[in-house]
Design goal:
It is a single chain. The chain is α/β, with parallel strands linked by helices. It is built from 14 helices and twelve strands. The strands form two sheets. Strands 1-7-6-5-4-2-3 form a seven-stranded mixed β-sheet. Helix 6 links the parallel strand 4 and strand 5. Helix 3 packs parallel to helix 9 and helix 4 packs across helix 8. About 50% of the residues are buried.
C-alpha cells in the first residue's frame, strides 16, 4: 500500500487505498459510481430547484453547473491532492485556461517558467493578444532570478515541477513564499508527478492543475484535466467553467474513477522502470545526457527527494549525440516503445518535443528553455524493463555513424 507522507492522522487510509475507495470508504451499494445520463433534473417546487442550483458544482440541477457523477470524481481527486475542492474539465488545457481566466484581467502580469508546456505558452500568448495579459518567462534552472521578474501588477506565478520535457525541478516552498510575498497567486502544474507522487498544496501552492489525460487516465484513451485547491479559490474557477462551458461528460468522469483505482499500482511500476532505465541509459554510448531527477547527479535531485517522496516519476529524457537527425533515427527504429505524443500511459512512448509538446516555441525558444533539438522524451510504462532496455539499445545502435 502507498502511504501518504503528508498525512498526520495515523488512522487515515493511505493514498493507494483512497485511490481505490475514494474519501468515503464506508459505503454500500454499487462498487462503481453509476453514470447519470441526464443533463437536466426535475424538482417538485421552485424553492427546491433554487436550493439545488445554489449548491454549484455539487448540484444536480443542470450539467453545465454541476453533475452528480462528475462531482463524485471531483471529490476523489480533491482527496488525493489534499485539497478542499476540485473541478473536472474535458482537457488539461481547459483546466489551466479556466484557472488563469479566473484570476487574470486586462493589464495583469504573470510570471511563468520558460520550460512550461507548449500549450501553456500558447495560452499566455493568446491571453496577451486577446485579453491584455502581460507575462514574463523565467528560467526554471535559475531560481535566484525569479524575483526580478515580478512587477507591481504580478498576479500569478505559474510553474511545473518537474518540467516537460527536461525535468527541471522547482523548489515549491520557495516559489510559494516568493509569490505570496509579492501578493501573487502560486499555481503549479502537477501533471508529471501526479497526485500520488507530489502534493504542491502542502508546499504552499494556491491551485494545482493536472492533465488527467496522462497518468491519471493512464491508458491513452481519454482527455481530461482538473484544478484543485481551497474551496474559495476553486469557486472562482467554477464560475469560469459555468460561463464558458468546459464541462466534462459523466461517462468521462466514470472513466477517471475507474482509472484512479489502479493509479498507485501503475505509478509504482512505472517509476521503478524509469529509475532503472535512467541509470542504465547513463552508461550507454550515443547519449550525451540523461535527464531524470532520481539520478544523484541531477541538479534538482535533493529538492525532488523532498517533494516527491514516493518516487521520481515515470519520464526520462535523453539528449542523443548527433542532434535532431540522431533523435529521429532512434524513434524511427523503436519496435516496442511507441513513437507518439503524450505520456503517462501503461504503454511506453517516445516523442520528440521539437515536433510535439514544444513545437510552438521554435528552435530559438527551445534553446532558450534548455531543450536540445536532439532530446527524446521517454514516457516509461509498465512493460518488463528488460524489454524496454533491449529496444532502446537496438534503436540507438541504428543511428548512422555519419549522423553521430
Amino acid at each position: 500500500m502507498v502511504s501518504d507522507p503528508n498525512d498526520s492522522h495515523a488512522t487515515r487510509p493511505g493514498l493507494g487505498t483512497r485511490a481505490v475507495h475514494g474519501p468515503d470508504p464506508d459505503h454500500t451499494g454499487p462498487m462503481s459510481t453509476p453514470i447519470v445520463h441526464s443533463s437536466t433534473f426535475g424538482f417538485e417546487s421552485l424553492d427546491a430547484m433554487n436550493d439545488e442550483q445554489q449548491r454549484g458544482a455539487a448540484s444536480a440541477y443542470y450539467q453545465r453547473v454541476g453533475h452528480p457523477t462528475v462531482h463524485v470524481v471531483e471529490r476523489r481527486l480533491a482527496d488525493l491532492e489534499g485539497a478542499e475542492a476540485a473541478l473536472l474539465f474535458p482537457s488539461g488545457m481547459a483546466a489551466i485556461s479556466s484557472a488563469f481566466l479566473a484570476y487574470l484581467k486586462h493589464g495583469d502580469h504573470v510570471v511563468a517558467l520558460d520550460q512550461c508546456y507548449g500549450g501553456t505558452h500558447d495560452l499566455l500568448q493568446w491571453g496577451s493578444e486577446h485579453f491584455g495579459w502581460q507575462y514574463t518567462l523565467v528560467d526554471g534552472r535559475e531560481p535566484d532570478r525569479f524575483e526580478a521578474a515580478f512587477r507591481a501588477n504580478t498576479r500569478l506565478f505559474h510553474v511545473e515541477s518537474p518540467t516537460n520535457p527536461m525535468l527541471c525541478v522547482v523548489d515549491l516552498d520557495r516559489g510559494a513564499r516568493l509569490a505570496h510575498s509579492k501578493g501573487a497567486l502560486f499555481t503549479c502544474d502537477n501533471t508529471y508527478a501526479s497526485p500520488i507522487g507530489q502534493h504542491p498544496l502542502a508546499h504552499g501552492a494556491d491551485l494545482v492543475m493536472h492533465s488527467a489525460t496522462k497518468s491519471i487516465g493512464g491508458h491513452s484513451d481519454l482527455l481530461a484535466g482538473f484544478v484543485a485547491g481551497a474551496r474559495q479559490a476553486v469557486e472562482r474557477v467554477w464560475k469560469v467553467r459555468k460561463v464558458f462551458g468546459p464541462m466534462p461528460d459523466p461517462a468521462l468522469a466514470w472513466q477517471i474513477e475507474r482509472s484512479l483505482k489502479t493509479l498507485a499500482l501503475r505509478l509504482t511500476a512505472m517509476n521503478a522502470n524509469a529509475a532503472q532505465l535512467a541509470a542504465q541509459l547513463s552508461t550507454l554510448a550515443g547519449i550525451r545526457q540523461v535527464y531524470y531527477p532520481g539520478l544523484a547527479g541531477h541538479p534538482g535531485h535533493a529538492i525532488a527527494a523532498r517533494q516527491m517522496p514516493l518516487g521520481f516519476g515515470h519520464v526520462v529524457s535523453i539528449d542523443v549525440i548527433g542532434g535532431a537527425a540522431a533523435a529521429e533515427a532512434v524513434v524511427n527504429h523503436l519496435r516496442l516503445i511507441r513513437h507518439a505524443p503524450s505520456l503517462g500511459g501503461v504503454d511506453s512512448l517516445a516523442s520528440l518535443p521539437a515536433h510535439t509538446s514544444h513545437i510552438q516555441l521554435g528552435a530559438e525558444g527551445r534553446a532558450r528553455a534548455g531543450i536540445p533539438e536532439g532530446v527524446i522524451r521517454l514516457s516509461i510504462g509498465v512493460e518488463d524493463a528488460v524489454d524496454l532496455w533491449a529496444d532502446l539499445v537496438q534503436a540507438l545502435a541504428k543511428v548512422p555513424a555519419a549522423v553521430r
